[in-house]
Amino acid sequence: MTDQARCSLCRAPERRLWAPVDYQPTLESLSVGNFISLERCPACGWLWVLVPWEPFASFPYLVRWDRSAEDWQRLHDLDKGLTLHKWHEAMIVELYETLDDDGIEAVTWHRLRAHGRGPLEQENVALPDLDSFLTET
Length: 137
Ligand SMILES: [Zn+2]
What we know:
Layout: E1 17-18, E2 28-32, E3 37-40, E4 47-53, E5 59-65, H1 69-79, H2 82-95, H3 101-114, H4 130-136
Bound molecules: zinc ion.
The site of zinc ion has 8 residues, from loops.
């Protein structure tokens, strides 16, 4: 894992969010959960969480995962990915404004297609405290 330089494929560690743009990097699936999966960048090894949003699961968003694959699996298995889904949506809300023009355009297009069921529709999406979930179990 190269922590210093920006990965030429997934652009970690600078980038933390990929909107559903057609040049989104293709990563390797490490673990497939309940409409959510843990992916690994084949170039740098960084982990990402992929959620394919509706409609037709054709709007994939990648959020960088800074914890271990084991943590991801434990969190997923706690509640079939519910907490991870909440975390993923909250991260989109938090990171949306860091996207470039293409990314923002992709999100805008998605929201139009999703008829109120896309990301950024809720005013307050609480970011779950993943640490507390991990220490409770
Ligand atoms: Zn990478």
